[in-house]
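Hi V.,

Quick status before I head out on leave. The structure for the redesign project is tokenized and pasted below; the design run finished overnight.
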């Protein structure tokens, strides 16, 4: 399996996780608000401080983003591009967001694909400070109670990354068993999630959110993405037993690589290692 050496020592625990409770719901991101504030309000109105969400459409503008890029200094295995600020309104095709905290205040990690005014499909890492909701649109969310994704320094990758941290639960409407998860580098996404479910006695799980990066990508239909640095969003996914009882995951994703190539499809099981991180929520079903 492909592997990229990280600048720091690998943590012995390769899956960071917190068991929590949660609930799926939908809400509308209000036009005119910064995307971060619109997301924060939607979760707060449902009684949550954070969680994950998926986007299937929408419009942002003004708008700013970065793409994956090669590291200029060697301090990281890969890095970010300069900031892009395209003119006009961006039409979102799909995206995933983790809403948590950084430095004690709300923050998000969000990847997606969208069409800009040039008519071309682009993708990358949406910046919370500079992206405004241009037109109100609905999103599908999963709030978590008993855990929060918190940005903390990560010595392995030399980035400040979201990871789940336990927090006292307060939302009585969070009735579903759920796990807030971060996968660390150089492990196959599907295999890691299947192993996690086996170890915790989970027979079926639904994946909510899903923001991270893989070392290129191999799809179930045989297509490959060769450039090693990607920004990836999980569009939908789940884990369930097949006929012989073996747990098997299905992960439909969208990504952009550091050369600007975009791709969508179902990931091949066993051959898609994490580059930097992968954040998501597993709802036990």
């Amino acid at each position: 399996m492909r592997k990229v050496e990280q600048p720091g020592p690998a943590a012995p625990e390769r899956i960071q996780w917190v068991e929590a409770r949660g609930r799926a719901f939908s809400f509308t991101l209000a036009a005119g608000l910064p995307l971060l504030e619109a997301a924060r309000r939607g979760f707060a109105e449902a009684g949550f401080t954070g969680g994950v969400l998926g986007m299937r459409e929408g419009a942002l503008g003004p708008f700013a983003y970065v793409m994956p890029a090669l590291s200029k200094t060697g301090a990281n295995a890969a890095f970010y591009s300069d900031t892009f600020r395209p003119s006009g309104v961006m039409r979102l095709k799909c995206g995933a967001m983790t809403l948590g905290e950084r430095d004690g205040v709300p923050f998000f990690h969000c990847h997606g694909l969208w069409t800009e005014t040039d008519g071309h499909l682009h993708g990358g890492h949406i910046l919370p400070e500079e992206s405004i909701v241009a037109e109100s649109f609905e999103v599908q969310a999963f709030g978590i109670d008993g855990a929060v994704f918190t940005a903390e320094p990560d010595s392995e990758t030399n980035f400040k990354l979201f990871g789940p941290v336990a927090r006292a639960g307060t939302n009585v409407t969070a009735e579903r068993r759920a796990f807030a998860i971060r996968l660390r580098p150089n492990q196959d996404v599907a295999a890691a999630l299947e192993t996690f479910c086996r170890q915790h006695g989970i027979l079926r799980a639904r994946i909510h959110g899903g923001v991270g990066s893989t070392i290129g990508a191999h799809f179930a239909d045989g297509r490959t993405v060769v450039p090693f640095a990607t920004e990836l969003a999980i569009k939908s996914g789940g884990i369930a037993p097949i006929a012989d009882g073996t747990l098997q995951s299905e992960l439909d994703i969208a990504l952009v690589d550091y050369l600007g190539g975009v791709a969508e499809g179902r990931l091949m099981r066993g051959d898609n290692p994490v580059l930097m991180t992968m954040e998501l929520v597993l709802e036990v079903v």
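Above is the designed sequence. The chain is about 10% helix and 55% strand.

G. will cover questions while I'm gone.

Best,
W.
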